[in-house]
Amino acid sequence: VQLQASGGGLVQAGDSLRLSCAASGRTFSGYVMGWFRQTPRKEREFVAAMPWGGGYTDYADSVQGRFTISGDRAKSTFYLQMNNLEPEDTAVYYCALNSYSDSDWAAAASWDYWGQGTQVTVSS
Fold first, then answer.
1. What integer pLDDT is reported at residue 55 of this predicted model?
2. Contacts of residue 104, Cβ cutoff 8 Å, sequence gap at least 6
């Protein structure tokens, strides 16, 4: 399984970005797709997740109402739309896949596959 994240960049506070994660290597029915982020001083932090087949979504409190996770199963690609970005959102963002939907989605250790990370920098 390979995950290729893209879409990061340098933006100003209040701007929007859309991150993409292209998945390959197998079919992902039953998997959970997700996004995490990490700064040098913090552990990897849960951002958002949803089942590959759609439906229920989960977000960190800090991004609820501003970020939206979605997926295009035909393209095996999922996205993180980030609106009204804040300087506190500055981090390396990682996409991930979890093969066990009943696991703790917020725990990085629960996730099986990771992308390489894409830097998001939000200036004030």
1. 87
2. 110
